[in-house]
Amino acid sequence: MPLRNFITCPLIPSRLHLHALCIPSKIDDDFEALLSSALSGIAEELVKAGQKERASQLFDRALQVAQKIKGGFQHSLAFLNVAEALARAGQTDHSLQVIRSALHAAQTTDLRLEALAKIAVALTRMRQKDLALQVVQNALQIARKIDLEPFLSSPLKDIAKAFAELGQIDRTFQVIRRIGDADERLETLSDIAMELAERGKFDHAIQIAQKG
Going by fewer Cβ within 10 Å, which terminus of the chain is more open, N or C? Predict the structure, then answer.
């Protein structure tokens, strides 16, 4: 992108250990999801630094950028990225509002499945267990109606991950068995076990590793 298309942005405080964010003045659709994610990530760091007003402004800007994305999975994913950043920043109610926007943005069945699966994982990490269970069960119902194996792999991994986070190990394995490729099944099991261990859920991680 030509240098003249960039604008200079205010420096983020040095204590955040972040460089200045240079935002293109003219931005392609392909970059808007990335921009939205970057803005929400910086907002999250500002919350940690105690600059809640500036953080709120950046979260609003991230949502504005996400809203401009012209539908499709990237549209839903942009909202979900903002929602996860809000949750990590302790703004759970606002995060849940944005998650509803992410779900609304997924219009077709396949996109809705992708969105539901990722939302379920996000909700488990927000400790919204009851809502996460409802969402992941909804995603599983949709997955059972779709026979396109190459497409199903990604959402099935997220559905399995959500069940594992909820401690439902038997259902985790039921979902993983639907992944057609053996190497992908093993990779998914390994990824889930590692992620559970990283979050201190050692009992669940050991169950996954031993059954795998």
Answer: N
Q: Amino acid identity of 153? A: S
Residue/partner pairs of 98-104 with CB below 8 Å, 24 or more apart: 98/63, 99/123, 101/63, 102/76, 102/77, 103/76
* Residue 73 and residue 106 in contact, taking contact as beta carbons nearer than 8 Å: yes
Q: Sketch out the chain's domains with CATH numbers.
A: 1-107 (no CATH), 109-212 (1.25.40.10)
- CA dist 76 and 107 (Å) reads 9
- Which H or E run contains 143? helix 129-144
**Each residue of 141-185: pLDDT tens digit?**
888 877 655 556 788 888 999 999 898 988 888 888 888 778 888
Q: Which residues of the chain have pLDDT under 50?
A: 1-27
C-alpha distances out from residue 121 to 14, 51, 54, 124, 125, Å: 33, 28, 28, 5, 7
* Dihedral (CA of 47, 92, 167, 163) sign: negative
First to last CA, the chain: 47
Distance CA 35, CA 50 (A): 23
| CA–CA dist 70, 64 (Å, integer) | 12
